[in-house]
Design goal:
single chain; mainly alpha
């Protein structure tokens, strides 16, 4: 099946070079790359920043407590109802 895709020029150049270096056609290289990507199935997309942020997973309750405390302090300074 033929299709049209918009691929950044730098990426297509690298793909063409890789295909030539491995003796493949560009079609074959792209087909294999797509199959590899799709074979991963429902695997979660890796988010490198989560390696660090994930360490704070258990901190939601503490964050909520801090935000409530901040809100209470601001309310004491300047009540919302304007009184």
């Amino acid at each position: 099946m033929k299709t049209t895709l918009e691929i950044p020029e730098a990426v297509i150049r690298r793909a063409k070079a890789r295909a030539a270096a491995t003796g493949q056609t560009l079609t074959r290289l792209v087909t294999e790359a797509l199959n590899e990507k799709l074979a991963k199935g429902g695997a979660r997309r890796e988010r490198p920043w989560m390696k660090f942020a994930g360490a704070f997973k258990g901190q939601r309750a503490e964050s909520r407590r801090i935000l409530e405390r901040i809100s209470a302090e601001f309310e004491a300074i300047e009540p919302e109802n304007g009184a």
